[in-house]
Amino acid sequence: MDAEPGVALPIGDLAQATGPALGGFVGGSYALDDRWEIVGRAGYLWGASTKLQVAGLSMGSSLSYAPVLAGARYYLLDPGAVRLYLAAEAGAVLVVASESGTGGDSSGSSLYLGGAASVGMQVDLLDLRAGLLTADLGHAGTSTSALMTLGFRFGAF
Q: What is the pTM of this model?
């Protein structure tokens, strides 16, 4: 079991629709052997608003994410105090969009097939990970964020 506070920084066109997202994940893993693990995690990332002023009108928007992901982790090094790994995950991502402006506020949500790819390093109970989170694999160019987490491992199966 583990807990991973983290931050997601929007990339490309997504940065115009939302600010950085803060939140975290809880998850677990099951070791298949010394190199492979099956992993799963769920979390929530709250997106900060972006503000835009056009022709005297003020508008704001934000996107928040609730991913539920499963996948695999491959360790590049034999068991030891420090382990480097690669991870790939896919699953459902609930995206909640909020908009505000002079005409009022609105919000909506959609469920997408998303995924994450990352590299990480485990040092004893700490797990530092960096990679990409894509909320909608069908529109990866406009739904990808750089995701960084610092996890704390409480136990293993």
A: 0.89
